[in-house]
Amino acid sequence: MDRDALMKFVGTGMxxxxxxxxxxxxxxxxxxxSLFALLILQLAVLVIRPDDPIGDKMRADAEKDDPPxxx
Length: 71
Description:
It is built from three helices and no strands. The chain is an all-alpha fold.
């Protein structure tokens, strides 16, 4: 599963789960605890494979300037 799909899944959970908990339990504590857990999950997804557009461009330029040796 790629990171974009996982971020959409977690983002949807951050909207739906607190609403369900707020309506079902009428407890702001439950909503706050679920939001904290989902925030930690979302940060973990970002740490797993962070975007590196500058590094990707530098690697592509390095490969273009210095091609790998032939086999």
